[in-house]
Amino acid sequence: MGRHESAKPTRRRSPFLMAVMVVPAAALLAAGGGALPVAADVPVPDGVTITGGDSSVLMVAAPQAVNMANLRKVDPPPDTLPVGRAPESGLQVKTILAARAISAEFPEILTIGGVRPDSLRWHPNGLALDVMIANYGSAEGIALGDQIVAFAMANADRFALQDCIWRDTYYTPDGGAQVGGYGHYDHVHITTKGGGYPTGAEIYTAR
User: Where does the signal sequence lie (predicted)?
Assistant: First the structure.
């Protein structure tokens, strides 16, 4: 394939920028100190303080044993993202977040690849997605790939985005775009910084 100029990403959706967050599914509290995750609207017992960190994950610093009777179960928020097109086994949390958000925003995407053997560490370590584009050589397919790149860039902070590669162009969240030698004409490659492997207590939401 020949070299292609870097297309300016355009968005077909509304100006609304879809921000995505990860919150724990339920309070996971135990006796002893340390920072433990708690759902956002769980009432905080006396003597327990909320600490900062990633604004999308609340942490509870418990200086002493917390009485479980003081906590109530919290239902998942109504905007929970369902499992998307990517197999999630082996993916890290920010990569899952990106996969689910892209699946929800672009229902025409039918296949997203995740973990697979590779000489580079991104796919084997659950840090990368391959968003497959049907009719990738058509004007519609090219436009769809451009829109997915633009969507990923608009949500770079939430996805802990490292880069995207599409149609021989390497994109980074700081606005950089390098052309030449990158391939990726039939899919958009998305790399995140991971965020660690899921514990099973995460809820992925779109806000």
Answer: 1-40
CA 142 from centre of chain: 23
Query: pLDDT digit string (tens) for 117-136?
Result: 999 999 999 999 999 999 99
pLDDT band with cut points at 50, 70 and 90 for residue 68: low
Q: How many domains does the chain have?
A: 1
3-state class of 161 per DSSP?
strand
Domain assignment present for 44? no
Look at residue 31 and tell me if it is in a domain.
no
Average pLDDT over residues 11-30: 41
Question: Quick check: pTM over 0.70?
Answer: no
Range of the domain at 201: 93-206
Quick check: is 41 in a domain? no
201 belongs to a structural domain: yes
Q: Beta-carbon neighbour count of residue 183 at 10 Å?
A: 12
Is residue 106 within 8 A of residue 156, CB to CB? The reply is: no
